[in-house]
Each structure stands twice: as structure tokens, then as C-alpha cells.
User: What shape does this take?
Amino acid sequence: MTSAIDAPTSTTAPVRTSPARALVCRGCGAEYPLAAQHACFECFGPLEVAYDPAALAQVTRAQIEAGPRNIWRYAGLLPAGQDAAARVTLDPGFTPLVAAPALAAELGITAPVHVKDDSANPTHSFKDRVVSVALTAARGLGFTRFACASTGNLANSVAAHAARAGVPSIVFIPGDLEQGKIVTTAVYGGELVAIDGSYDDVNRLCGELVETDEFEDTAFVNVNVRPFYAEGSKTLGYEVAEQLGWRIPSQVVIPMASGELLTKVDKAFSELVEIGLVDAPADGWTVFGAQSAGCNPIATALHQGTDTITPVKPTGIAKSLNIGDPAAGAYAIEAVRRTGGWMDYADDEEIRAGIRLLARTTGVFAETAGGVTVAVLKKLVDAGKLDPAKETVVFNTGEGLKTLDAVAGQVGPTHRIKPSLRGVRDAGLLG
Amino acid sequence: MTSAIDAPTSTTAPVRTSPARALVCRGCGAEYPLAAQHACFECFGPLEVAYDPAALAQVTRAQIEAGPRNIWRYAGLLPAGQDAAARVTLDPGFTPLVAAPALAAELGITAPVHVKDDSANPTHSFKDRVVSVALTAARGLGFTRFACASTGNLANSVAAHAARAGVPSIVFIPGDLEQGKIVTTAVYGGELVAIDGSYDDVNRLCGELVETDEFEDTAFVNVNVRPFYAEGSKTLGYEVAEQLGWRIPSQVVIPMASGELLTKVDKAFSELVEIGLVDAPADGWTVFGAQSAGCNPIATALHQGTDTITPVKPTGIAKSLNIGDPAAGAYAIEAVRRTGGWMDYADDEEIRAGIRLLARTTGVFAETAGGVTVAVLKKLVDAGKLDPAKETVVFNTGEGLKTLDAVAGQVGPTHRIKPSLRGVRDAGLLG
Assistant: This one.
């Protein structure tokens, strides 16, 4: 729409075109055009977005810093969203990096600890990042309806994004979902389809629907546009580095469901070094993964010295991490091994204690996934796996208000008294 | 602590000293030093912070824009918080101003409508603003314990702020509070005192405790440091103006509990004009107030043509607005009359419809107070009180996750099907 005059490029002018060049198979390396495809036609391996290195190398700190205070400041490093007017987004991201000295002290960590608090996103989980990128790519690819299978955070985010954009949505959920989780999606007014079956049944059905003619106009965020979706998680890594003053932390502790978030934060750090936006740390960085004991197939494989994931039937309170057959598990193991990290898992009691520890020491109230991460942080320190003398960033991916039941039985009033000074005195509150 | 060298003042250097000069009685104009005092010794009227006009006049747009993306960018216009290291804060503020074209269209408003979405604050309500200012002032005044009486948002915010700052807290709540609201305060680990009695009983007790020797170290955010607390609400007005490109909107619709938020947004606009940070709009601005039908003493007084508030016993689902004897009601009426505005109230069904309308058209899921505001916006348009040809900003002060029950009976799955293509087809979802 603009004229063809070649004005000199300012270093703070936003990037106008996508730096993505292809989808590449993570298994065999086969390349495909940037389209709605998530598996390799050759080997059925998962596809990942690949970029033009020259395009990435044009991105500058000044350009990023002049951008909006959300994920789109990194549009020059993402596969979609360069045209602000064409975004489908709630403008998530640039969530707080909270200094956590009291948490560090309580765990015996002498170096700084920070909490990357993604509960501050618009629908209060990191899913807003991946959904914004997926749906923006989807609209660019011509899709006119947005869909997903989900039991919680993803459903909230897709329905809210669709409402903001004025695009029809259709969210598929297991029929026995708790009412609270239904309300937080249904309130946005899209189609909400309850399936008589388990989450696995819902997922399988979505895999079938995406192949039908009737759904050819529909982008399932974590199915047919999954490669774009997954790239959204890179922004968590970019933000941490920028918020530390363009520096990569020595250690990161990241919750794992599919394992994809962990691999993308690692990828983000690598890209920043390759582009030259940050200096490569002398000792590199170390990536740690956290699962719940009720769904620990990735950590178990690592512990057993293999990278073959044996699927499990998930149990336990950390439902947002309950993916029994994690698609990116092997890649997460690769990243953790390559960087000298480790994985561990926490049981339900440890998760509850992790939520309370984080809240008490930082004022951040995390959902169960955040409890998993803090509990595993503690285990890694206690086991000598995580170096207490090195700076560490812990990722909280969701909001405690969404999983109130996890701690409802454990916390309550510390005193019950009559409404009188005597009541206060008898409770020992008047010194 | 800094040296006495008089360096030339940069326009982007942060303000180092408080511009506040005194506490002034809103009733008789008596002045008092800046201390923990909330009522006039002469006439028992409420005290308000007064500023040195010369100090305010030194604040520049460049200085604000160079500041952090939170309320503290306006430290030069607040009574406390100029020293970043001495703040007690979760760094709230600079919440999204969301364009709402679909909401406008549905209500027949032809000019732009924006939603100021304060659910994006750290504990997901506007209370984080007032608590940050109150507790920062309190620490500066020497208080070593933080307290409040509350039934919800305020309790969450005080407990979370105290946890972040590592300061003891003591929160007083009615003994019959729902468990969900107890959890969201108790999880932060401070003292939580359940009182056998109503919220009025709790409030009365706090008023007594603040006079005791044993509580002389304790700042009750909305009692003894209330004048500072109330100033935090000004930041909502500053942000709206800055986010509109340093412009005051023609019309604002604001929920009322004590009525204070409305008066402070109006005060913020006046200050910006006086300082010269924005031009005075040709037609001024118009302030509208929203209450729930279950607690409408301010709107009722306005409708009756008086400014004498007759207290009510609150009922209805908009509990965060349920103050039956609103301290700033007469001042809210003054602001609304002076600016040519109006007030109205919405019943529980209208509030539920307001929550759903906002979610469906903007992707913002508001607590009941937000439903009140949207419902009243609709009434004001329908009654011809609000000009549909003028730009309007609607304030959402809290998060839908905190009041799920309000809409839980109204929204749910749109379809229930078997996990098969036939199930999808039979539901009419396959075209």
C-alpha cells in the first residue's frame, strides 16, 4: 500500500516481512513451504519453522526496544505478525521478571533468582503467546475459523482471541470438565463442544476433523498450524534475556507438558547469540525441566538414560501439564543433555508446597504448573544438580486463580475471633 | 543522601521528592502535616492530599514516558514512591486500554469506545494501585506492619504486597467469606483473621484497633493512611490520557463503591490540564457513575436531586462494590454534576448480561463490577444520557476469575456430542 520510495532504513523501524523461509522436518530435515502442515510427508516427523539467517541478522536491539511492550516487539524473529493491523492478538507478553531474593534465601541459593511470571498475560497463562502467533499465521493463511482441543488454558485463550478479533471459534473439551473451566471459555461466546470421552478422545477427533472438507476453513491452533503455534514460546526466552539487560541467565527451570516450551526457550537463547543480540555466556546456559510425578514421561526417560519416551496415563493435580505422550519430549531431553542440565518431578504435596512457597516469598500466586516448577527447583538444589551460586530464572506459566482447589484445603484463616478488642487480645494479636 | 551539587535538571530525569505538601480537609479546608491521619480534627471531614503546584508543574511528558511501564512513571504526581528502592509494590498499572469497536457497534455508539482493563494488574484488580501507594507511604511514615479490612480484592492485594516486601501483614475478613476468597489471601502466608460478624463489624473493629497502642506500628491501608491510598486511583486517569496520546476522553463510565475512584479519575484529568500535560478539551469531559441496584445509595441521591447519601444495606452479586455508606459519595455526585454526567445502576441480571457482552465483544472477562459498568453504559446510551457520538472510556476494575459464580449458571457448552465424525455431523457442525 505504501509507495515504492526506498527510504533509508532506520534501526528502530519495525520489520515488515516475515523472516521465516520454510517448514523443516525435525526428523529428516525435509523442507516444505510455509503452510498449514504439521507433519513430514516423508517420515511423519514434526515440522518446525526455519528462518532466513540474513533476515534474522537484521534485527537490532534498538528496533526491539522501540517496539510495543508485548510479544510483537520480537516480530522480526517470529514467523507471523509483522503487519500490526493483521494480527489476531490480545497483545500478550512482556510479563514481569520478578526478583525473588526471599525465595532464593529459603532454598539456599546465593545467586539471584527471578520468576518469569506469565500469569500476567491477558488470559493469565503463557498460552496467549502461542495462540497469538498461531492465529495471526492462520489468518494470513486464509483460515476463517479458529479451533482447539483443550482442558483449560488453551481453550480460554483461543476463545478470548476469537472474541477480540470477531472471528468464529469452536473449542472442543472433554464432557466431564469442571464447571469453572467451562465458564472461563464459554463466557466469550464461541462454539464450545463437550465430547462424551476423555481428552485423548477429543484430541483424536480434532485430528480427524482437520482432514475433513467441512473444516478446511478451520485452524486448529495445536494441530494444523502447530509449527507456528510453537514458535510463540520463543518470546519467553527473548524477554528474559532483554529484561536481564540483554544477557542470558546461567540456569533456567521450565515446566514440561509436551516439552515444547523448554525447547523453544533454548532455541530463543541460541538465536539471540547467533544474531549477535547478546554475547554468548562464557559457561553457556543450563536448561532444567520440571514435570509432575503424575505425568513424568520425559523426566523418566532422561533418568533412564534414553530418549525414547514411554507414554503414561496422567494423574495428579497439575492438569495443565498432563500430556501423557509428549510430542517434543525427545527434543527437550536433547536440550537438557546438551546444556548439562537435568529434569525432575514433584508429587502433589510437593506441588502444593511449591505454590505456597512462591506466594509467601514473592507475592506471585501460581497455578499448579508453577508449583511444579518451584518444587522441582528445590529438589534440584537439594540434589546438587542446580548450582546455587549461579543466576537462575524460574518460569511460572499460569495463574493460581485457575487452580484454587489445589491449595484450598491447606490454607485458611490463622485466627477466628469475636469482633471486639477482647477477641483480638485473646487471640494474642494485641501483643 | 545525594550530594548538594545543583546539576541542571534533565527533562527525563525522575522526580526525587514528593510533590505533596499537606493533608487538607475536604469539608472545612483545614490543613495538616503529611502523616497517618484520615479525618479532620475540626469537622471530622475526610482528608485529601494537597500538592505544591510548582512541584507538579515541573513534571513533563518526556519524564513520564522515560519512566517504568507502571504507576511509578507518575511518581512526580503522587504523594509517595519517588525513591524506587523504598517502594512497597507489585509494580501495578499501565494496564491495557482495549479498543472495543464490536461493543460500540452493539450498543449503537458511533464514536470509539475503549475498555481500561485493570484486571491486568498483578492481583487482578485496581486495588493494587491504591495499595502500592498506601504501603509505600506507610513505610515512609515508619509503619512496620500492613493491615486492612476487606472481603476480597483489597485483601488479596495487601497480602501479596506484604509477601513481596517481606513485611508482616494482618488482614481482617468476615468469618462467613466464601472459601475461594479466603484462599486467594491466605496463600500469601500473612495473618488472616476471620471475625464472627459482618463486614461492618470488621470495619468497626479495625477503626478501634488503629487507636490502640498495640497497633501503632500498623498501617491499615484504607483507615489511617487512607488519604495516600486514595491518591493511587489517580493513576487510572493519567494512564487513560497518556494511552490516548495525551488526550482526555469526552466521556468516562466508572464503577462506584465508596465513590472515590470516580473522584480521583476526575482529579487526575484536572491536574493534567492544570500542569499543561494535556490541552483542556473544548467541551471538557463528562463523568458517569455506575452502581449495582443492590447497593445504589450514590446514584439514588443524584436521582433524588440531593447530595445527602442515605446508607443502604447492600445486596446483590457485585460484592466488590457493596459499600452501603460510601465515604466519597457526595464528592462523586459533585464531579458528575459539574461535568454534566449522570449515574445509573444495574440489577443482577443486567450485570450478568454486561459481563457476557464485554467478554463476547472484547475478549475481556470482567468481575461483577465490570459487568455493572458495561450494563450501566448500555442504560446511559439507551436513555440518551451518554452521547453515542463522543469517545467513551469504560473502566473494568477486576477479573472475572474472581467471580465465576456470577455467570456459571448462564454459560456452558453449546453442544454435547459423541467423539465421532457422526457426532459432529449430527450436531450440525459439519455444515
Q: What stands out?
A: Chain B touches chain A through 77 residues (CB under 8 Å).
